[in-house]
Amino acid sequence: MGDNSGCISVKRYPFREGTVFTTDPKRSSKMTTFIPKIEKLSSCVTRILGCNPGQMTLQGTNTYLVGKGDSKILIDAGEENNSEYISLLQTELKTNKWFISDIIVTHWHGDHVGGVANILQDVQEASSAKVHKFPKLQPPESYVGAAPLNFIKDKQVFSAGGVSMQAFHTPGHSEDHIILELKEDGVVFSGDNVLGEGTTVMEDLYHFMKSLQVILDLKPSLIYPGHGPVICDPIPFVENYIQHRHKRESQILNQLKENRGNMLTVEEIREKVYKDLAASLHTPAEMNINLHLGKLLKENKIDSVDDGNVKKWKVSEEMKPNL
Ligand SMILES: [Zn+2]
Q1: Which keywords does this Swiss-Prot/TrEMBL entry list (predicted)?
Q2: pLDDT tens string 216-272
Q3: Which domain holds residue 177?
Q4: Distance from residue 256's CA to the centre of ligand 1 (Å)
Q5: Please, what is the angle between helix 234-258 and helix 266-273, to 10°?
Q6: Shared domain check, 313 and 254
Q7: Distance between Cα 174 and ligand 1 center (Å)
Q8: pTM
Q9: Do residue 267 and residue 167 come from a single domain?
């Protein structure tokens, strides 16, 4: 058992200005923050970089060792067969005489779950760790590599390593996504629901927006994301993102209202909403519009009809003209 004090931050974060967090092709973003391979972020949290840099992973997946004492919870496990990451993790554990009691995976994507089997097999200090994950619906899963999965329930509390963490099911980026709130100091581990910088992809915008609200409601003091630097201004950061999505959604809905009686294809919506967009950005723009259309459909604000091979969209009959 650890002491009852909160986690003490060992780092002061400058307020970052002009951060862009968007999937919108008209807004650009660039990576600017250097992330060291190993960094102690507070008395309870050490971040170890997954050493898997790439377009989708930024400088790599952030994995976090959490706990006050020698026993640690590992959040996310990096990708499969990354010997540099395994060696970093191993050295950090050995040097500090730490061991891993639990591995919590935020979601099924390979850059978060891929390293679990390697860690259990190759890192002596983690060989008996329990592995936890929110269940995926399709296909159902019960193992990661050779490790049996312990299924996480929404709002489940983990007490280990002298800290308490609560899991919240936050689908949208993926159906099985969770975030974790470290109760000691109110920080949130956001997985891929919120990235430190750059863009995130999502399966379902309807659920994703609700999940962002779950993060806001927790009023986090900091966000430790699955990729990119620590977010030191979480509330304006997430609110800004929500507002931007609402603005884009109203533009799409307004086009459908203005063309009432004329059903529109996604290409026609794109031409009206994203004017003068370079041809190379047409596909990402249409993917973005499709996410919004899926959300509006779930909210019964629009209807769709398959006209031959083309899907067309119109505002729903129940929507009053001036709403
Ligand atoms: Zn992901």
Answers
A1: Hydrolase, Metal-binding, Zinc
A2: 999 999 999 999 999 999 999 999 989 989 999 999 999 999 988 789 999 999 999
A3: 38-232
A4: 32
A5: 110
A6: yes
A7: 7
A8: 0.86
A9: no
